[in-house]
């Protein structure tokens, strides 16, 4: 009887044990937590962004102008890069801090500075490196360049050719950089009762991961925040777990 009792205790211990996921939050999270649609969202300029500036009729004041002969082209380096201090160097105006500014805010800053030389400057600003990465079980996993701020998940999936046959639509992940941390949400695209939940708004810099059905289901209790990392490194961690 003593041996039988000992075996039962050992069995119970094994049943209660669970492999600890380093990314799992100790607090239970809501499986339906997702990035809510924000109608007022505007992209804010970040360090290392590549920016073209166009001043109508003033090629000498433009860098990668969309108006004149110096067309913006990321490949050939016709752009300004936001440095580690969040600044760029603009002809005549000099150093400008653009970190965390929206495109309309930067336009107004440039217009104000250029009014010393131009009566009514017409300025256009474009961020050349806005993109969303789609990984996993889609037909063409890729980095997709985008021009607009409001992009939907299904729009991005369509740009990569759609889902593959083995795509696990119950466990699609979205990674988003927020400061030094990465926020993660898990989506079940098979739910038919809430289109807003299934077709969420993506932001430039987001990473979409579509896992495979043949792999084990990803732990839905994953922490909604992965601290002190980037979306690229967080994606590598998650892809390794899947």
Automatic annotation (TrEMBL):
Cell location? Cell outer membrane
Annotated membrane-spanning segments are none
Residues in domain SLBB? 130-210
Q: Which Pfam families would you find in this protein's record?
A: Poly_export, SLBB_2
Where does the UniProt entry say this protein principally localizes? membrane
Domain Polysaccharide export protein N-terminal span(s) in chain numbering:
39-127
The membrane topology of this protein is: Multi-pass membrane protein
Q: Where is the signal peptide?
A: 1-19
Keywords, alphabetical: Cell outer membrane, Ion transport, Lipoprotein, Membrane, Palmitate, Polysaccharide transport, Porin, Signal, Sugar transport, Transmembrane, Transmembrane beta strand, Transport
Q: Which family does it belong to?
A: Belongs to the BexD/CtrA/VexA family.
Q: What is this protein called?
A: Polysaccharide export protein
Q: Which organism is it from?
A: Flavobacterium hungaricum
């Amino acid at each position: 009887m003593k041996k039988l009792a000992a075996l039962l205790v050992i069995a119970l211990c094994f049943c209660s044990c669970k492999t600890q996921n380093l990314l799992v939050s100790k607090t239970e999270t809501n499986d339906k937590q997702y990035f809510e649609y924000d109608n007022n969202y505007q992209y804010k300029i970040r360090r290392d962004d590549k920016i073209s500036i166009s001043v109508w009729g003033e090629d000498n004041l433009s860098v990668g102008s969309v108006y004149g002969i110096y067309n913006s082209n990321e490949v050939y380096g016709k752009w300004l890069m936001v440095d580690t201090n969040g600044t760029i160097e603009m002809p005549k105006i000099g150093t400008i801090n653009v970190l965390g500014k929206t495109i309309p805010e930067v336009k107004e800053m440039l217009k104000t500075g250029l009014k010393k030389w131009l009566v009514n400057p017409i300025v256009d600003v474009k961020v050349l490196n806005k993109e969303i990465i789609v990984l996993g079980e889609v037909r063409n996993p890729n980095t997709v360049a985008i021009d607009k701020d409001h992009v939907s998940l299904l729009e991005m999936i369509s740009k990569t050719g759609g889902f593959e046959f083995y795509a696990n639509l119950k466990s699609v992940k979205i990674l988003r950089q927020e400061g030094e941390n990465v926020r993660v949400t898990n989506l079940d695209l098979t739910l038919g009762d809430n289109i807003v939940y299934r077709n969420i708004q993506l932001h430039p810099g987001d990473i979409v991961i579509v896992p495979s059905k043949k792999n084990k289901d990803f732990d839905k209790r994953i922490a909604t925040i992965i601290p002190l990392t980037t979306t690229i490194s967080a994606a590598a961690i998650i892809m390794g777990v899947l």
